[in-house]
Write a structure and sequence with these properties.
alpha/beta; Alpha-D-Glucose-1,6-Bisphosphate, Chain A, domain 3; 4 domains; 6-stranded mixed beta sheet; 5-stranded mixed beta sheet; 36% helix
Length: 461
C-alpha cells in the first residue's frame, strides 16, 4: 500500500490533503500517463477514461478536476454521472476504455470522498501501478500538455449496465409474489436497484432512495441495517437488502428479521454454484475477518477456502491467481467472477434471491445453517497510526491469548486503510471470553500506543 492510495483508492475530505484540486488533477494526469505508457492496442480513437460517482455533493467538483487532469495527459473522459462503482468497472471493460475511475468514499459518511481506479479489464488498479502513479503526483505538467476538454456525456451507457444486471437473474425465474425491502443508502443504487427488482415482479419497499448530496449512508445502508430490518418486520417482507453508498456490497435480512452478512451469502452461493457444477476447483476466497464457522462448514462439504488480507482487491487478486469463481468478505463484498470483474452489490442481491427462489423455501430456511463463532470487532479512533511492530508488549499479549485459543479462535489487529481507526477483531468459541480479550487488548493498545480514545464496538456475532 502506498501513502497516497489506501486499501481502496485515495480517500479523504475534499478541500483537505490529499483531495485538494491541484492534487486531484495531478493524480488523474499521473494515472493516465502511467496507463498510456502500458497501453497495447486500443479502439483506434483517442484513449478515454470511463468515470462515475456516487451521490455526494462533493462528487461533481472532484470529477471536474479529474477531467482536467486526464485531458492534460491526452485522454477523453466519458462521464456516466451517478453510477454504482461496479457499473464503472463493468463498462470500462466493455467499452474499450483505457481505465475507469469512480469518485466515491463507499460506506464512509458524506463529508468524505475518494478516487478509485480500474484497469481497462475492469479489475482494480494493482498496487504496483498505484506506486508508479504516486511517484508522478505533484510533478509539474509537461510542456505541451493539451488544453482541458469537457467530459463527454456517457449516461446513455448505463442502459448497458442495466441490461447486464437483468441478464444475471435466471431467465426461468422471477420474483413475483415476493415483498422486498430495498435500502439504497441514499447512494448510487437508488435509481437502479428498486426498479430492477420491481421489473422482476417483486413488491418493493424503498428506504434510502432520496439522496440529497449529504445523507449518503446516514442511518441506513449496509453498515446501518436496523432500519431495513425493522421495515422487513413491519411490511412482513420476505427479505430485505441493504447496499452501501456506491453499491458494491450488500447485506440481507431474512423474513424473521435476522441479518445475513457476506459470510452467509458466500455460504449460500458456494453451495448453489457447487451443485450447479460451476464452483471452480471447489474453492472460495475469504478474508482474515471471515468467521471460522463458515470456513469449517464449507470444509465439511468439500469446499476449500483461500484466506487473504482484508480488502476486496485482495479477494479479486486471489480469484484471478487461482482461477476461481467466487470470493468475498463478511462486509458484503462478494465477487461472482463468472459475471463481473469486481464486487457488485446488485449482482449479489440477484444471485442471492435466485438461490432463495430455486430452493422453494423461505429465506431463513434457504440459508445454510452453520455454527457462527462469537466475534467482536472494536474500532479505536486514532490520531496517528503507530506501527504495531513498535508495540512489543501489545504483541506479546496477543500471542498469549492466541496460545490459549489455538485452533478455537483468532485475533486480528490492523489499521483501517480508509479511516483513522485501529481495528481489533477477536473470535472464539465463548462469547464471554471474546469480550474479555477484546476489552483487555483495547486497553493494552491504548496504554502502549499513547492513544486516548476507547473506541466503539462496531459489530458482534
Amino acid at each position: 500500500m502506498t501513502s497516497l492510495f489506501g486499501t481502496d483508492g485515495v480517500r479523504g475530505i475534499p478541500g483537505k490533503p490529499p483531495l485538494l484540486p491541484e492534487t486531484v488533477r495531478s493524480i488523474a494526469r499521473a494515472a493516465a500517463s502511467v496507463l498510456l505508457r502500458r497501453r497495447q492496442g486500443g479502439n483506434g480513437g483517442r484513449p478515454f477514461v470511463v468515470m462515475g460517482r456516487d451521490t455526494r455533493a462533493s462528487g461533481p467538483a472532484l470529477g471536474r478536476e479529474l477531467v482536467r487532469g486526464f485531458s492534460s495527459a491526452g485522454c477523453r473522459t466519458v462521464d456516466l454521472g451517478v453510477a454504482p462503482t461496479p457499473a464503472v468497472s463493468y463498462l470500462a471493460s466493455r467499452l474499450g476504455s483505457l481505465a475507469g475511475v469512480t469518485v466515491s468514499a463507499s460506506h464512509n459518511p458524506a463529508e468524505f470522498n475518494g478516487i478509485k481506479f480500474f484497469m481497462g479489464s475492469g479489475l482494480k488498479m494493482p498496487e504496483s501501478l498505484e506506486a508508479e502513479v504516486e511517484a508522478l503526483v505533484g510533478r509539474p505538467a509537461p510542456s505541451g500538455s493539451r488544453a482541458a476538454l469537457p467530459a463527454e456525456d456517457g449516461r446513455g451507457f448505463m442502459e448497458r449496465y442495466s441490461d447486464f444486471l437483468r441478464s444475471v437473474f435466471p431467465a426461468h425465474l422471477d420474483l413475483s409474489g415476493m415483498r422486498i425491502v430495498a435500502d439504497c443508502a441514499h447512494g448510487a443504487a437508488a435509481a437502479i436497484a428498486p426498479a430492477l427488482l420491481e421489473g422482476l415482479g417483486a413488491e418493493v419497499f424503498r428506504i434510502g432512495c432520496s439522496p440529497d448530496g449529504y445523507n449518503i449512508n446516514e442511518g441506513c445502508g449496509a453498515l446501518e441495517t436496523e432500519t431495513m430490518r425493522r421495515a422487513v418486520l413491519k411490511h412482513r417482507a420476505h427479505a430485505g437488502v441493504s447496499f452501501d453508498g456506491d453499491a458494491d456490497r450488500a447485506i440481507f435480512c431474512d423474513e424473521r428479521g435476522r441479518i445475513a452478512d457476506g459470510d452467509a451469502l458466500i455460504a449460500l452461493a458456494a453451495l448453489r454454484l457447487a451443485a450447479l457444477g460451476v464452483l471452480r476447483r471447489d474453492k472460495v476466497v475469504v478474508t482474515i475477518m471471515t468467521n471460522l464457522g463458515l470456513i469449517r462448514f464449507l470444509e465439511g462439504r468439500g469446499i476449500a477456502s483461500v484466506t487473504v488480507p482484508v480488502g476486496d482487491r485482495n479477494v479479486s487478486d486471489a480469484i484471478e491467481a487461482e482461477g476461481l469463481s467466487l470470493g468475498g468478505e463478511a462486509s458484503g463484498h462478494v465477487i461472482f467472477r463468472c459475471f463481473a470483474p469486481t464486487g457488485d452489490g446488485i449482482v449479489t442481491a440477484l444471485e442471492t434471491l435466485a438461490a432463495v427462489r430455486e430452493s422453494g423455501r423461505p429465506f431463513s430456511r434457504a440459508l445454510p445453517a452453520y455454527r457462527v463463532f462469537p466475534q467482536l470487532l472494536k474500532n479505536v479512533p486514532v490520531e496517528r497510526k503507530v506501527p504495531i511492530k513498535s508495540l512489543p508488549g501489545f504483541q506479546r499479549r496477543i500471542r498469549g491469548y492466541e496460545d490459549r485459543m489455538k485452533g478455537f479462535g483468532r485475533i486480528v489487529v490492523r489499521y483501517s486503510g480508509t479511516e483513522p481507526l485501529f481495528r481489533i477483531m477477536v473470535e472464539g468459541p465463548d462469547a464471554a471470553l471474546v469480550r474479555r480479550v477484546t476489552a483487555d487488548l483495547t486497553q493494552a493498545y491504548l496504554h502502549e500506543s499513547g492513544s486516548r480514545s476507547g473506541g466503539r464496538t462496531q459489530s458482534k456475532r
